[in-house]
Write a structure and sequence with these properties.
The chain has 7 helices and 5 strands; from the N terminus they run E-H-E-H-H-E-H-E-H-E-H-H. With about 190 residues, the chain is α/β, with parallel strands linked by helices. It has a single domain, classed as Rossmann fold. It comes from Pontibacter aquaedesilientis.
């Protein structure tokens, strides 16, 4: 079974984007699409990094753990709120912390906002950063507007049927990219 890591990007008090993380975990697991783990940046509580992992003299156990979990994941979902048209510093910090680990890693983006546009302004800047470090960003997006009205604290959506339909398209696209990467890796190993 493929393995997906979901990064919960917000470290703010009262964050709402984590509700979407919980929803995606429930959706993937209940449909038995993949095994899932949440990488909650609030729990990691990283300092601002002064260098990427490969150049750290003495990386902490938390740094090693995060890196290992990204490496072991067949695909990654990043759930990020939009803050003033951009993504949180906590996310930029961990994206830049790794480099080779992102190479050709299928990454799907879900953006969240309290307003009507679902974080659509953050997609371009996050995609560009991931592209620069050679991650494989999945074409399907999962923008979610008015998160505070549409998901409860446990991640249950107000309109489950419509949300599940959109989530299925998003997750299936990630799974396709994960399978394609696995086939390409296998082919390269045989060469």
């Amino acid at each position: 079974m493929p393995h997906i890591a979901i990064i919960s990007s917000s470290v703010r008090t009262g964050r709402k984007s984590h509700r979407v993380v919980l929803y995606l975990q429930k959706y993937i697991e209940s449909h038995q699409l993949a095994s899932v783990e949440i990488l909650d940046l609030k729990e990691y509580d990283f300092p601002v990094f002064n260098e990427r992992f490969s150049r750290q003299h003495e990386p902490t156990d938390k740094m090693k753990d995060f890196r290992d979990r990204i490496i072991q994941a067949d695909g990654v979902i990043i759930v990020t709120p939009e803050y003033n048209g951009g993504y949180p510093a906590s996310l930029k910090n961990v994206v830049d912390f790794l480099y080779e680990e992102w190479h050709r890693k299928p990454v799907a983006i879900s953006t969240v906002s309290g307003g009507a546009f679902g974080g659509s302004q953050v997609i371009t800047s996050l995609q560009f950063s991931l592209w620069k470090i050679r991650a494989w960003t999945v074409p399907a997006m999962f923008p979610l507007p008015k998160v505070q009205d549409n998901y409860d604290e446990e991640g249950d959506p107000a309109d489950k049927e419509a949300t599940d339909k959109r989530a299925d398209h998003f997750i299936q696209e990630l799974l396709w990219c994960m399978e394609a990467k696995a086939k390409m890796d296998e082919s390269a190993d045989k060469s």
